[in-house]
């Protein structure tokens, strides 16, 4: 056990003691907002404390509940939200735990915003959470490993969420092609998709069916950054590109980690040819993290990138110049972001 561990254990004991004293003196009646942040030093032995705090504070009338832990082994006690305790919750933010709601719990009808980060659940469990959330306006899912991404998950898009306005989906799991959707997200205005996947066969053009289900969508941010591009390149198969139907509300499209993948080029060309309201298109190649900067007269260089990544970035730029730039209407502002030329020397294709 090092000095840092000892300090963290002492902080954790002090935190548990103070919170325990405060909440045990409180009846729980009248609590509107509860935030528990133990993300820096939560351990498995703290679960009994967290359970007791939630039992005290999560009562009918609570409107905001935030629980930030650091271990997915903690199982959020969903039963606490039954018997009316969850019906008033408008904002639910869970981090670093498992969440296993079931269809037998008809609660959370007042939800307007849900944020789940590093939370374990399945598509069916997400469906159980949201099936009665008709007021939901904002949904943020980040690094939720068990979720099937870009079915996004498929269960999510089968639900009726008529008031959803912003959806932010970030998953590290496998991708499957987006299915034709039966639901309509009439008020969804901003969609952010950041799949973190090891599957390279995804057909990006299948996202057109998702956009078709979002007639009010104005902003789409798609982050497809991956170090290894194994999809069919537009230069390998330059045959006719697929087309989709027209859209009239989209104003801003941003694609991060742009490559020469044919389906990605097809999707981008679709936006230029079929989205009549498009104003801004940003295509950004794979970038170093961190990037170079000047601070206090000190220059920090970009983190090195593998040569294969730089070569694919160059192919992506060539695909933009060859297939995309000629189709950019005069009213659309195209912004192309290359890898840092100062830190990454030009490579041959």
Automatic annotation (TrEMBL):
Transmembrane segments annotated in the record for this chain: none
InterPro entries: At1g61320/At1g61330-like (IPR053772), LRR_At1g61320_AtMIF1 (IPR055357), LRR_dom_sf (IPR032675)
Pfam families per record: LRR_At1g61320_AtMIF1
Domain At1g61320/AtMIF1 LRR span(s) in chain numbering: 22-160, 161-340
Domain of life of the organism encoding this protein: Eukaryota
Protein name (database record): At1g61320/AtMIF1 LRR domain-containing protein
Organism the protein comes from: Digitaria exilis
